[in-house]
């Protein structure tokens, strides 16, 4: 292949005959998950004289069907197997100039190869932090050290929790989740407890969930640890797919009366 005039061409023969494939494409960035090694890439190309940068795309998708995926962002090309191969080759060759960053999405407890138990903080590696994967990912303080510190957390929740026995109970139940996880792992218990917080509207149910979530990470319902049962089932379970040994916190349970908790 060859790039000419902002477009990608395939070289067909030894005489230099070329045919247009699509706009010139390249990898701008690669985001690698420390734990499962999955990758998301950001691809850019020019369209109508303006630079277009796509949203992050799975590396597997780009490897097998880049044209159909990038066509969603107005890439123009014939979606054939051999042309997909040319686009994939061009993207792979451009990776040497891409920004490589690392992240991990798992939150909760994990064991290393020697059986030691660790608590993994959520998204603790900055997205702009370029690192080499260590021999053991647990060796990195970025993997196990949460944002903030215990004293600042205590100061923020003390005035809110201590006056209310209900909030104290919620905080205690949230803190028990890792213990239940470990007891089940050791086969001391067979089932994890399911606890419902019920009451009239505007009496602090969601606030109690935020108190529980604050032990482990973000208290937000969008991008945080609180799942909203008003979402789709697929979206709901995707929220919790990377959480291990911490509470599955669900708000607005009345939206899903059909769900067997």
Provide structural commentary.
This protein has 261 residues and is of the alpha/beta class. Helices cover 30% and strands 23% of the residues. The protein has helices at 59-64, 66-70, 81-93, 141-144, 150-161, 165-185, 205-214, 233-240, and strands at residues 2-4, 7-11, 18-23, 25-33, 39-47, 50-53, 57-58, 99-103, 107-111, 117-120, 226-228, 243-244, 249-251. Strands 4, 5, 6, 7 and 8 form a 5-stranded mixed sheet that branches. A hairpin with a 6-residue loop joins strand 2 and strand 3 (18-23). The protein is elongated. The N and C termini lie far apart (55 Å). The mean pLDDT is 81.
- Show unreliable segments: none
Number of helices: 8
Q: Spell the H/E element sequence.
A: EEEEEEEHHHEEEHHHHEHEE
Basic shape = elongated
SS elements, strand count: 13
Oligomer: single chain
- Percent in strands: 15-25%
Rounded mean pLDDT is: 81
The N- and C-terminal alpha carbons lie at a distance of 55 Å
The helix-and-strand class reads alpha/beta
**Cα Rg:** 24 Å
Characterize the biggest β-sheet.
5 strands, mixed
List keywords for this structure.
single chain, 261 residues, alpha/beta, five-stranded mixed sheet, three-stranded antiparallel sheet, 13 strands, elongated
Short description:
This protein is α/β, with parallel strands linked by helices.
Set down the secondary structure blueprint.
Blueprint (H helix, E strand, L loop, with lengths): L1 E3 L2 E5 L6 E6 L1 E9 L5 E9 L2 E4 L3 E2 H6 L1 H5 L10 H13 L5 E5 L3 E5 L5 E4 L20 H4 L5 H12 L3 H21 L19 H10 L11 E3 L4 H8 L2 E2 L4 E3 L10
Parallel strand pairs: 4-8, 9-12, 11-13
Antiparallel strand pairs: 1-2, 2-3, 4-5, 5-6, 5-7, 9-10
Helix pairs in contact: 6-7
